[in-house]
Specification:
CATH class of the largest domain: Alpha Beta
Number of domains: 5
Strand content: 15-25%
Distance between the termini: 69 Å
Largest sheet: 8 strands, antiparallel
Shape: globular
Bound molecules: adenosine-5'-diphosphate
CATH topology of the largest domain: D-amino Acid Aminotransferase, Chain A, domain 1
Strand order of the largest sheet: 13-12-9-10-11-14-21-19
Helix content: 25-40%
Number of strands: 22
């Protein structure tokens, strides 16, 4: 086993990896930028080293600085987390050159599977169904437009180097093609330094369902089942759950087999995720492989009882996976929401700043993976993910009830958060019935909220009292830096208050 691991990341995922190391008795080394001096991943590490200014290209993206720290602190392995350099094959190569074990796949497997087009080519060779479209970048817009006409609209233009929904444009018709091409290519160039795009058929209202795989260096590759990630805002996941409300044991086995076939074909070792789109008839189509740990890995951990980070470390250290695919049966239900420092009332604009007060929910079936604490300032320089709130229960209903209860207990002041978005999602009838598609959340957000209802006789007075109470609560909340706006008291609370008042002498 390793003696000391360098964690080449920050925020909640660095803390998550630190925790696994601590439980395994492995020493930890964190790296940090100037704005992260007092971040949780620095405070919790055995050693921590400054690697540069806030801009990630001067700090968290500098392979040379990471290698310097790894060598001078005597690390024998490096965990990349997700984001930053996690899917950059130059990092495993640099680790190999420095005699440090990279906790993840080989550079070759990353290249064979990690790029969207290479992944599609491999999927075709491995007999895994793919979303119809090209599996090579297209050089000029004339060829691309001819292909789109052939395929039939709508089509989707996608950046080869894409991620986080960037460099992606839906093209509804031929007339819109040229401008969509220009937009996709320039966004891709700005975000990834690579303007190349390719073309896919745009599927109408699919689900996003992905399979977690684990592969050891001794030829065993297993599927740990699916995660449903169809609740997305602008192609980015915001709620994930396992199991999927629509996946049957038979479909789970088929998708698991396809993912494992792909993993084997790519010589994949370590944890990876094979993403699929699933249509209304439950046909599944390969989308891409994420050659790293995913943000949403905890939902799989909660239903399998496995610790994916510890397994990643064990696999990298050359251990064998101790089980076969048949032995892993998901138990119960798990769901994760991504809590961001952003303002849902202002186009989800990032809301960095000082956390004045913070109380995290606890209790049965609740887990929080976070990288924040009271008094810490959320920097403006990085992705504003604060915490992942994960609930699990015996059924989907119990899990949702626990998540709602935990969201009510979650209090944070000083910054805005998207808590109210989840309060709303978790009460939407379609969501409760599991009838969700990748476009569902954007459609929900386009609807007026709360829905305008005709006033019922006698409710005007109650509404006035509610409004007065809400305003007084707002002016009493005097924490500097602003507070999370509280929704108007529910009729249930109002009723409770009225009864309390009735009992006053
Ligand atoms: P990124 O790497 O930028 O996250 P993905 O290829 O993983 O991009 O796709 C992200 C999301 O975009 C998917 O989960 C899905 O909602 C949507 N999407 C991608 N490809 C298609 C497609 N061909 N048809 C319909 N929706 C798609």
């Amino acid at each position: 086993m390793f003696r000391k691991i360098l964690i080449a990341n920050r925020g909640e995922i660095a803390v998550r990896i630190l925790r696994a190391c601590r439980e395994l008795g492995i020493q930890t080394v964190s790296v940090y930028s100037e704005v992260d001096r007092t971040s949780l991943h620095v405070l919790l590490a055995d050693e921590a080293y400054l690697i540069g200014p806030a801009a990630s290209r001067e700090s968290y993206l500098r392979i040379d600085k990471l290698m310097d720290v790894a060598k001078k602190s005597g690390c024998d392995a490096l965990h990349p987390g997700y984001g930053f350099l996690a899917e950059n094959a130059a990092l495993p190569r640099a680790c190999t050159d420095a005699g440090i074990t990279f906790i993840g796949p080989s550079a070759e497997a990353m290249e064979a599977m990690g790029s969207k087009t290479a992944g599609k080519q491999l999927a075709r060779r491995a007999n895994v169904p793919t979303v119809p479209g090209t599996s090579d970048p297209i050089e000029n817009p004339e060829d691309a437009q001819a292909l789109a006409q052939n395929m039939g609209y709508p089509v989707l233009l996608k950046a080869i180097a894409g991620g986080g929904g960037k460099g992606m444009r839906v093209v509804p018709s031929d007339a819109a093609f040229r401008s969509a091409w220009r937009d996709a290519a320039s966004e891709a160039l700005n975000a990834f330094g690579d303007p190349r795009v390719f073309l896919e058929k745009y599927l109408i209202g699919p689900r996003h369902i992905e399979i977690q795989i684990l592969a050891d260096a001794h030829g065993r590759c297993v599927s740990l089942g699916e995660r449903e990630c169809s609740v997305q805002r602008r192609h980015q996941k915001v709620v994930e759950e396992a199991p999927s409300p629509v996946v049957t044991p038979e479909l789970r086995r088929k998708m698991g087999d396809a993912a494992v076939r792909l993993g084997r074909a790519g010589g994949y070792v370590n944890a990876g995720t094979v993403e699929f789109l699933v249509d209304a008839d439950l046909n599944f189509y390969f989308l891409e492989v994420n050659t790293r740990l995913q943000v949403e890995h905890p939902v799989t951990e909660q239903v399998t009882g496995l610790d994916l980070v510890k397994l990643q470390i064990a696999i990298a250290a050359g251990h064998r996976l101790p089980f076969a695919w048949e032995t892993i049966t998901p138990r119960g239900h798990a769901m994760e929401v991504r809590l961001y420092a952003e303002d849902p009332d202002n186009s989800f604009f990032p809301s960095p700043g000082k956390i004045i007060s913070f109380r995290a929910p606890t209790g049965p079936g609740i887990r929080i993976d976070d990288g924040v604490y009271e008094g810490w300032t959320v920097p403006m320089d990085y992705d504003p993910l604060l915490s992942k709130l994960i609930a699990w229960g015996n059924s989907r209903e119990e899990t949702i009830a626990r998540l709602r209860r935990a969201l009510d207990e979650y209090t944070i002041t000083g910054i805005r958060t998207n808590v109210s978005l989840f309060r709303r999602i978790l009460t939407e009838p379609e969501f409760l019935r599991g009838e969700i598609r990748t476009t569902w959340l954007d459609e929900m957000l386009a609807r007026p909220y709360p829905p305008a209802a005709p006033p019922r006789p006698g409710t005007e007075e109650a509404a006035l009292i509610a409004a007065a109470l809400w305003h007084s609560a707002q002016s009493n909340a005097s924490a500097p830096g602003g507070t999370e706006p509280q929704p108007a008291p529910s009729p249930w609370k109002m009723e409770g208050r009225r009864q309390q008042m009735d009992h006053l002498p």
